[in-house]
Amino acid sequence: MIRPAMIAWREVTEKLIALTTSETSEEQRDAVISSIEGFLDSRDKLQPHIAAPFTSEEEAFGNELIALEVDVEKKLALFTKQIKMNLSESQSKKDHMKNYINPYSNVARDGTFYDTKQ
User: Fold this and answer.
1) Rounded CA separation 81/75 (Å)
2) How does 26-46 read in b/e, with b if 16+ C-beta sit within 10 Å?
3) CA distances for 61 relative to 7, 15, 69, angstroms
4) Which ranges in 22-55 belong to alpha helices (H)?
5) What is the pTM of this model?
6) Cα 11–19–89 angle (5° rounding)?
7) Within 13 Å, how many C-alpha atoms sit on residue 68's CB side?
8) What span, in angstroms and rounded, lies between the C-alpha atoms of 15 and 83?
9) In angstroms, rounded to a whole number, what is the distance separating the alpha carbons of residues 105 and 39?
10) For the chain, which end, N or C, has fewer CB atoms within 10 Å of the first or last residue's CB respectively?
């Protein structure tokens, strides 16, 4: 007999995998992030209920969960990487716009000749 906490862990993990694999637009990203946080919180609540000793059936089920966990970590890392790339792109666009509006704002003043005889 497998513990209900382990079965619930697997269901939440599968939902996390489904959320991170689907393409999300930037408008929907906030909702997806809040859903991911909710699923991670529910997994944190389930974790104390999954403790040794395990039966042989639970050990086999646990090995499946470990394989799923590796997949979840990869998907979440890819999701955060995409978010970081989008943030850096938007910051780069802002910087380019500022440089276009005022091209001489970032000119280095070191080594500039100052005429003191004026």
Assistant:
1) 10
2) eeeeeeeeeebeebeebbeeb
3) 9, 17, 12
4) 29-46
5) 0.77
6) 155
7) 18
8) 20
9) 46
10) C
